[in-house]
Amino acid sequence: MNEPFFIGTAQLPNKVLYAPLAGCSDLPFRRMSCRYRPGIVYCEMVKMDALIRHDPNTYRMLDYEVGMHPIGAQLCGSKPQIAASAARIVEDLGFDVIDFNCGCPVDKVTKDGSGSGMLKTPHLIGEILSSMIAAVKIPVTVKIRAGWDDQSINAVEITRIAENAGAKAIAIHGRTREQGYKGKANWDHIKACKEASQNILVIGNGDVFDAESALRMFAHTGCDAVLVSRGTMGQPWIAEDILRALSGQSALHRSVADLKKSLYEHFDCILKYQPERQSLLDMRRVGCWYLKRLTGVKELRVQLNRSATTSEVFQHLEAFPWEGIHMTHEPIFADL
Ligand SMILES: Cc1cc2nc3c(=O)[nH]c(=O)nc-3n(C[C@H](O)[C@H](O)[C@H](O)COP(=O)(O)O)c2cc1C
After folding, report:
1. Closest ligand 1 atom, CA of 230?
2. Could you tell me which CATH class the domain 5-246 is placed in?
3. What distance in Å separates the CA atoms of residue 25 and residue 157, rounded to the nearest whole number?
4. What is the mean pLDDT of each run of 10 residues along the chain (336 residues)?
5. Whose CA is nearest to atom 13 of ligand 1?
6. Ligand 1: does its nearest atom lie under 6 Å from the Cβ of 224?
7. Hey, how many other C-beta atoms are within 10 angstroms of the C-beta on 19?
């Protein structure tokens, strides 16, 4: 199962993909992710408008290192007239795949029809995809939700539109925009898209939190690949776990010591990339993901959140009595 997976001309090492996560899948996150060889890692979503006006912060979100290939960029916007230029910038930066975001539920994004707002104008999704595809040689894909709300499920219709426009893959998050991140993802919608697809690859997304749920996603939907989102937070090794399960290998035991080591390594990646103030904020956010996977660490979480400097964070980690701490196997969710 650890076999190459092709999205158009892009060769990926496998079919376990790590999703774009705004505010999370930054360079330190991707450094940690790449240690476990997911099929691809994505940068955080960037806005087409900001990219074409060469906004430096937007470019920084697309920072990557040679060892991170295959790497994808995700564009968000609703204007066909700038989609081609934005796609060309991404291609020139050396990305392997361009994904078009049609799933972001945030009001600020949907108010101009972008993100999941695009679900209300499926023909425009086709138009934007066509103009990107005509502008670049690298494969273009799209990520959608099942629909805007339960009364307007249109993932199958959009799968057909994306396929006709020439998109190489479509990732379907089995929730509606109305659901946000609440409730369960309905994988039946992903299955329906797979059944409706002819050539376009269908990527299943939503509620893949461990190897077992990834196997269920493949079995239930028949999808070609899985896209792991919140399941990557505080367990960068999830691709390795899923790939082992797919090839029938036994699960690796992940101990508290492994988790602690990974937490330190992640903090180290942050410190190497961000100045002190931003590092502190990022360490609080990232620390929370890892600590949520443990029981008996409430006090440590409070201490991390109250720390005024990064060295204070490390002092608390060093002083903490790690003996007697256990892993929890409850699925954890991001604070949204
Ligand atoms: C903090 C956060 C940031 C996200 N940012 C993006 C993003 O930039 N682009 C995108 O397509 N989806 C984004 N998503 C959605 C996820 O990729 C995914 O579709 C969703 O979380 C469902 O998968 P899950 O149930 O496995 O988490 C984000 C989700 C979260 C929780």
Report:
1. 27
2. alpha beta
3. 30
4. 90 98 98 97 98 98 97 98 98 98 97 97 98 98 98 98 98 97 96 98 97 98 98 97 97 94 98 98 97 94 97 97 86 58
5. 21
6. no
7. 28
